[in-house]
Amino acid sequence: MVSFAAEPIIRLGFFSITNSLLDALLVDAILVGLILMLRKRLSLMPGKFQVIIETVIQEFYNITYSVAGENAPKIFPYFMSFFIFILFANWSGLIPGVSAVGLKEHGQIVPFFRAATSDFNVTLGLSILSVLITHFLSLNKLGFKEYITRYFSLNPLNLYIGLLELIGEFTKIISLSFRLFGNIFAGEVVIGTISAMFALLLPLPFLLLEVIVGLVQALVFAMLTMAFMAVLMTPHAEEVKEEVIES
Amino acid sequence: MGFLKDLGFDPVLLGAQVLNFLIIYYLLKRFLYKPVMDMIKSREDKIAEGLKQAEESRTTLEKTLEEEKKILQKAEIQAQKIIEDAKEQALDASRQIDENAKQEADRIILAAREKIEQESRDTEARLTQKISLIASDMVAKSLEGLISEKEQKQILEKTLHNIKNVN
Q1: Could you report the per-residue pLDDT of A48-72, keeping only the tens digit for each?
Q2: Which residues of A touch B17 (CB under 8 A)?
Q3: Is B24 on the interface with A (CB under 8 A)?
Q4: A116 and which of A1, A24, A26, B12 could share a cystine (Cβ 3.0–4.6 Å)?
Q5: In chain A, where are the structural domains located?
Q6: How far apart are CA B124 and CA B120, in angstroms?
Q7: Nearest 10 degrees: CA dihedral of A192, B2, A218, A168?
């Protein structure tokens, strides 16, 4: 049975290296491997691998530019990094055998690797980071005065709206982290249960479903982060003007 | 916050995961996005440069063709002029040759006429001399024995003088 908390594999005093952390390190290793492989082959006349990577990066940059406009160069690295890391973390739990190899504790197998995003610490950490980076970029772009007027104003109505905006920032963390954690953890539980019932062929459709879920969840997290960044980097007055024009 | 504990919340682990993400973010940004974007940009620049050069080459080709056309037109006009000049010169030369030939013919005719007249005069003079000689011989033979030799000579000279005056 998959537990909510990630299981510790190695204990170093107060710090435990859990299977989700090991999985995150595995994802890092895969990504570093891909980076090294690409850097080795990078040339003006691209090969198939370079074409795929360039197309993906270019398309994601175009999406960022269509949403964020001139802020795209600053937002794009975060958007892309969240997407790549979460995608690989989601899919890492689907590698056949990954959750079957581990330590035997109390008659149960504790796997060495567990999809990093099925650990609440990872999704919460990524969500907090996403919101913090969003505010850092906003502060950097708008300046302190413009940034703070979004939340605090002498006008009572604006102050009330600002308060709601402030609450909204915390709900962003909750919604981002729980959505990702819930989807991936549920997927792990479903696959674990189905595999326990009948391990041959039956889990295959669920694995395929989880591949799609992993992709969609990575996209949702990254796109929302990008949209939040684009919104908070736009001056409040411009935002209101756009809304008036649209209406 | 008990539910967070149930979900396995661990601030240290959370910090480690955040740090892990920040490291991978830095690596991706520094060694993946930047080189790839730079490569795409450099390729775009190269393509733009190639297109620009192609456009320049096309413009140069068009200019060259235009110039070639102009040169050909100019050459055609010049050739036409040269042909016309040559025709004109040929006509002049022909006229000159005709005139020269005519003059030469006139000169030759005149010279021939003069020569004929000269020869005619010479023949006449020789003939007169011969007739005079015959006449003097005839006079001398007819008067032989009738008059003295001195009278004969005087008569002969007078006759010859008369003949000459007649001529």
Answers
A1: 999 999 999 999 999 999 999 999 9
A2: 20-21, 24, 116, 119, 121-122, 125-126
A3: yes
A4: A24
A5: 8-246
A6: 6
A7: 150
Give yes or no for residue A169 having a pLDDT over 80. Answer: yes
**Each residue's pLDDT tens digit, B46-66:** 999 999 999 999 999 999 999
CB contact under 8 A, B28 and A77: yes
Measured in angstroms, the CA of A100 and the nearest CA of chain B are apart by 21
Say yes or no to pLDDT of B2 above 80: no
Contacts A–B by Cβ distance under 8 A: 113
| Gyration radius of chain A's alpha carbons | 21
So what's the pLDDT on residue B36? 93
Contact between B24 and A27 using a beta-carbon 8 Å cutoff = yes
Task: Judge whether A127 and A177 are in contact, CB under 8 Å.
Answer: yes
* Among A185, A2, A23, residue whose Cα is nearest residue B13: A23
For residue range B143-165, list pLDDT tens digits in order: 777 777 787 778 777 877 776 67
A104 three-state secondary structure: strand
User: How many CB atoms within 10 Å of residue A203?
Assistant: 21
Say if CB A122 and CB A61 are below 8 A apart.
Answer: no
Specify the residue for token string 């009948």. A198
Instruction: Identify the pLDDT of residue A84.
Output: 96
Put simply, whether B36 touches A (Cβ < 8 Å) is: yes
A53: chain B residues, CB-CB within 8 Å = 32, 36
In chain B, what are the domain boundaries? 13-166
ipTM of the assembly? Answer: 0.91
Q: Give the tokens for residue B73.
A: 């037109």
- In order of A115, A169, B58, the CA distances from A119 in angstroms are 7, 22, 62
Q: How far is CA B17 from CA A25, A125, A151, B11, B145, in A?
A: 9, 7, 30, 10, 185
d(CA A179, CA A123) in angstroms, rounded, equals 9
